[in-house]
Every structure is written in structure tokens, then in C-alpha cells.
Here is the input.
Amino acid sequence: MYTLGFDIGGTKTMVGVADESGTVLAMRRFETRGQLGPKQALDRMKEAARQVVREVGVSVDAIGIGCGGPLDRKSGTLYTVPNLPGWEGICLTAELGNEFGVPAYLENDANAAAMGEHLFGAGKGVDDFVFMIVGTGIGGGIIANGRIYRGFGENAGEIGHHKIMPDGPPCPCGDRGCLEALASGTSIARIARERLAAKPESVLWQWISSPEEVTAQLVARAASEGDEFASGVWHECMYHLGIGIANVVNILNPRLVILGGGVTKAGSMLFEPVRRVVRERAMPALAADVEVVPAKNGDLVGLMGAFAVAIENVSCRA
Amino acid sequence: MYTLGFDIGGTKTMVGVADESGTVLAMRRFETRGQLGPKQALDRMKEAARQVVREVGVSVDAIGIGCGGPLDRKSGTLYTVPNLPGWEGICLTAELGNEFGVPAYLENDANAAAMGEHLFGAGKGVDDFVFMIVGTGIGGGIIANGRIYRGFGENAGEIGHHKIMPDGPPCPCGDRGCLEALASGTSIARIARERLAAKPESVLWQWISSPEEVTAQLVARAASEGDEFASGVWHECMYHLGIGIANVVNILNPRLVILGGGVTKAGSMLFEPVRRVVRERAMPALAADVEVVPAKNGDLVGLMGAFAVAIENVSCRA
Here is the structure.
């Protein structure tokens, strides 16, 4: 069985072909250019897909699509997606499925990534885990009893929007004090930026010409070089990330919490403090059950997820 | 099919016989007297059970037992249960199953209550809901895809111990800022008690001779009579309860959140503010999916749960 996967992000799209074991046989990565509108952007996707299929020289059996939500999985249709203006109502499964004459399946990106880690990554063989993507925002996918758990309205897993500081800072979701508002890459940068004026001694000033240029990556780098200000911001955010994960552990008692996304590239700078907070703040029996580990699919976490969406749907396990 | 149910609490125990539809045919309620040690207390339970079985005049097919944890469901054995000193290692399923020569099944009380609401209560026919008991503490049980969700180590559902104020007040679990430390009956009373000295004008002083006598029930009553101090404490706690429920809604996207336990006897004084907070603070699509409703099994929530434990296990759905 060969699957064609589409990982459609607001900025980048990946298209690839994989076999059933998740070995990627060919892939392309390109700008989504969603602002061109669905017609042109979809034509680019179809063209890239035809190329990878030709390159591999097989016929694909199913298509999996991961895309930022909100979306209607069952009809394969997007609602109003912030990063894809004008795409609402577009039926991605019909567009892409018809192009190749095979069934196509859509899933929101965080669930797809969780399914990819389950079939091919750090969650292989593990029936109960939580996947979290910590990047621009914080998204989540729940694998329960070996299956993706979607909840009543298929929107479960909004872990980034559980509140750990009810009167805390505003969140892009419109609420306040969400985990995402305290520990996403965007939030790490925002918190540093807000406080930087009062810290002329920070090494960050040597790397930027204005506070607007501060990124989570720079904060991590400055912290790793011993900058006191950056280290304070970084550890405050890691503390909140750890609290958020401890909460999920107490509610779901997972075997693993798998972390992916750009912020996790900080490696042990992230995992060490987060694991310590989880150990200290989750209930002892539940803390003992869980390991907090990096996603294995790395930069391909979305594309591997798209392959998993195809496989799980074809085998009726999704 | 007739089931014998045991709802073993730290203070009270209920024993009853029900038919498959959950109609209670006979029951007894008595002091657990766990401090007498397991031998004597179990003898009292067995005697009460023999009485109700005799009274109904049927032979029971299975036994369900709900008990406060921590416990090992599979072996039917208690670990160190705070309210049952000396009971660790007692195999309740063997003790009670052997007495009646039928299979017996053990479940922690919050999961059992969730299962009871699923089979016989507010969650009947609903595949995805969260049950929360708000009383002395705050416990939870998760029904996912129509089944109790236990997680990797069978301890999922510790909703009362997710933190909504990471540096908040101490919680009986040993951590700080947990939902239980901010919104349980015990916490409502504690918060009122701590602040009462500075509020000589509160009507609460007319009902008590020392702050130690303040209970959540008295706070609710004073609030309902317009006492400004009590009303402030009550609404602060309801705000936190609402935030905790909004968090669970965002993580699990349930169709229902079913609330049981002593504090819910406050009725609309509880449900109105909590529903408002959930509507305002859960993500709109998820808030629209959920209703926050009272448990239907009321004071029998634990006993009905015990019947459900028996039925679900016999039919291999547990």
C-alpha cells in the first residue's frame, strides 16, 4: 500500500509518497501561498503531488491530508482557517482525491501529527499518549486506547487553550491565561519583548536592532549562554509548560507526552525543566507512569501524520 | 439479571440490589466504621448485603463495588486508602464475591459514579462526557466513545488536581493551586474561614460560635440571603470551578459535564455562575457543544455506579 500525504500549513506545504511502514519514497516542500486563493494554491499542490508520484513510479492507494483547523473532517471541508483566507468551504478531499482517483481523508494537523507519532514515531505501540506541538501556538492530539480521541464535536485536544492563570495575559484565541499565552514560541518572544526595555544589559540587545526582532529561538540561545534576563524568561515559560503538561497528565494518565514543534528544538533546555516540573507537580502515581519525550518524526511530523491519516482511515481504525 | 452493589465511602456505605434497568429493589445505608478494621467492617457489609438479597428474594448474578482509591481494579485490591486505615491489601472482590458465589468487580468511586450516570443517569445514551463529583474533594470520571477511560495506569480523571493557579493555596494532594484547593466544599469553607475574622458584619457570625464551624453549605446559604462577604467567597469559588470545567471542555470536547456531590445541592446558585464561566471561557465551538448538568442519580450516585460496574463488567463493556 502506498499513500500520498499532504501537510498543508499556513506558510509551508509538504507533499510526499510513503509505503505502509512510513518510509518516505519522495517528497516536496514549498510555500503554500494560501493568499493566492484556493484555485492557484491547489494547482501547485496537485502539480507537486503528480511529480512525487511520477518520481516513485507507483500508484497510490489513498491520500491523507493534515491541515490547520477548524475543519469538518467527515465532509473533508475547511471552515474559516485564519492562515488560508478565502478557503472556507473548499472540499480538500474531493479536490485532491478526484485528481488521483483514490479516497482522500482530512484531519486537523495536531490530530494527524499524533496519529503519525502513533504509527511511525515515538508513540509506536503505545495506546495512551498525548501529543503536543509547541511552536507558534500550542496544539494537541490525544491517543486513547490506541485511537485518536476526537470528542463529541471532533475538537478535543485543545490543550493549548486550557487556562493555568485565569486572569493571565491575552491569548490569540480571545481568552486569557491559556497555556499557549504563557509557553508557546510566540509567547516566549512576547514576554521577552515586553520586559526587554528594562534590561539594557541583556545579550539579546547585541543581536537585535529592535525588540520586535526577539524570537523564542534567540531567548533560548541567550539563556543557554547564561544571559540572566533571557534565562529568567525561558524558565518561567518552561515552568508554565511543565504545569500545563502536569495538568494533562493528571486528567488523562498517559504513558507518554510527546512534544513536537519549533520550540522543542531547544532540546534539553526544554525537556529538563519541563520533566522536573511534571515530576514535582503531577500526582506521584501518574508522574511515575509518564515520560515526556520528543517527537520522532521531527520536521516531518505533519507529513508523517498525513500518511497515518490515510492508513488509519483505509484500515478503518481512524 | 440482578446485581448487588456496594458503595463504600470513608464515612458511609450503601448496599443495594437492582435489576438491569437500575431500579433499586432494596438498599441499606450505614456507617462504614472503617476504623474498626476490615474484618469487622466487612462483616457488617456482608450482613447488610445478605439482608437486602433476602428482602428481594432473588439470587444476584454479579457484584459491583465502588470505593475511594487508590486501588488495583484488576486484582480487586485496595492500596493505602486514607479513610480506611489498615485496609491495604484487602481483596474486596474476593471477600464479597466469595460470600455470594458470584463474580465481583471493583472500580474507584468516581469512575463508578460516571458509569452509573452513563447507564442510568444524565449521561444515558451519551458517548462522550465528563462526570465530576464536587464535595469534600473534586473527583472525576471520563466516558469516551461510550466507555470509561482509565488511561495508562488506570488513574485518569484526576480533574480536581489540575492546577489553575500554579502558585495557589495548598491542596490535600500535597501540591498547590489545584482546582480542588479552590472550589471543593472543603475549600469553600476554608476560604471563608480564613477571611471571616475581618468581616464582623457577615451573617455567618450569627450562625456559628467559631470560624471552625463554617461549612460550604453555610456559605451558600449566607450568599443566597445576600450576605456580601459570603457571596464574594462563593462566586470566587464558582468562578474557579467554571474555569476548571472550561479547561476540561477544551481538552476533551465532551457533550456533557455532569456534576454530582454535596456542593451541587446549591442548585442554580452553582449551575448558573458555572455555566456562564464555561460559556465565556471555553473555546466557542466547544462551549456550544457542551451542557453542564446535575447528576441524575443524586444521593445514590455511588450505589448506581456500583450496579453499573457489575453490569458493564459482566457484559464485557468495562
User: Anything to note?
Assistant: The first strand of chain B starts at residue 2 and ends at 8. Chain B touches chain A through 46 residues (CB under 8 Å).
